[in-house]
Specification:
alpha+beta; 7 strands; disordered N terminus; about 190 residues; two-stranded antiparallel sheet; globular; Alpha-Beta Plaits
Length: about 190
């Protein structure tokens, strides 16, 4: 089923998904409009280049708050990601960066749907994080970037991409040194 807001979202009742969601205001609106425009004209050869642009802006940490760099907030997010594991999805891997999260999972039969899963994850983690930070207001950007993983080769490269993100951002030398990276042992690729 195709859903559209600013980004196209292709949701099925099963399959594996790569999702990136980020803190509110972590990318300036002017740059975001350029990225959205590029995504509307998306073909597979441009996909990787657009994702690299999107990710490099997030990894730079230039814009917005870096709330996820705080241990207590990262712990809230970690626990929220693990809660649906075995209920709505099989958690494959994730990395919690200072201002965004990359997540890969496989939907289980009878799941409540990606929209509701992500709404729940974001709602719960936002509420708890805002309480901890003694703040109010939007915590997460409304929309997430998502991609349906089509085959084993794409899954392999997606997992590698997620695990290597803290290394690419210059936060650690080895992905396993980043405290907030997780990979299910059945999917470990590196």
């Amino acid at each position: 089923m195709l859903h559209k807001r600013n980004l196209p979202h292709l949701y099925f009742n099963d399959g594996m998904y790569f999702i990136t969601y980020r803190l509110k205001n972590s990318i300036p609106q002017t740059l975001l409009k350029i990225i959205h425009s590029d995504l509307k004209n998306l073909d597979n050869t441009k996909y990787e280049r657009i994702i690299k642009k999107y990710d490099s802006v997030l990894d730079s940490g230039e814009y917005g708050k870096q709330y996820l760099a705080e241990k207590d907030i990262a712990d809230v997010c970690k626990n929220t990601l693990h809660y649906p594991d075995g209920k709505d999805y099989n958690l494959i891997c994730y990395t919690i960066m200072p201002n965004h999260i990359h997540l890969v999972f496989e939907l289980l039969s009878g799941n409540k749907g990606i929209s509701k899963i992500m709404q729940s994850i974001k709602r719960i983690s936002a509420r708890k994080s805002n309480l901890f930070l003694q703040r109010e207001g939007s915590f997460w950007q409304d929309e997430s970037f998502d991609r349906w993983i089509r085959n084993e080769k794409e899954l392999y490269f997606t997992i590698k991409y997620v695990l290597e993100n803290p290394v690419k951002a210059g936060l650690v030398n080895n992905w396993f040194d980043w405290e907030y990276t997780y990979c299910n042992k059945n999917y470990l690729v590196l």
